[in-house]
Amino acid sequence: MTQECFAEAVGLTVEAVRNLEHNKYAPKATTVDKICARFNIRLIDLLFDVPTDNALKLHKLIADKLLLYSKDELFIISKILDLINCLYNMKL
């Protein structure tokens, strides 16, 4: 599928698709929802590059672990993940 076709299918400009491909910015939640709906895929399958069964197991494991933390601890975890993501994107 070309960038043009993909952009039209999900309601983006071709430039926006290129920027997403080059990690210039992360897609909005509404854009991710449009992609999932348009191509009939689940969010977890879009975000995780693993087979569906493994993705479901991973999702459950993460969800179960996160239930053990307080709101304050989850905030700290979120900030750590943001930092890791930022550092990862700087190396690309």
Main sheet: strands, sense, barrel: none
Tally the helices. 6
Low-confidence stretches: none
What is the number of beta strands?
A: 0
* Rg calc: 16 Å
Secondary-structure content class: mainly alpha
- Percentage of residues assigned to helices: over 70%
Order of helices and strands: HHHHHH
Mean pLDDT across the residues is 85
The gross shape turns out to be globular
Q: What portion of residues belong to β-strands?
A: under 5%
Distance between the termini: 24 Å
Topology at a glance:
Elements: H1 3-10, H2 14-21, H3 29-39, H4 43-47, H5 52-66, H6 71-91
Helix pairs in contact: 1-2
Short description:
This protein is mainly alpha-helical.
Explain how this protein is built.
This protein has about 90 residues and is mainly α. It is built from 6 helices and no strands. It has helices spanning about 5-10, 15-20, 30-40, 45, 50-65, 70-90. Helix 1 (about 5-10) packs across helix 2. The chain is globular. The two termini are about 25 Å apart.
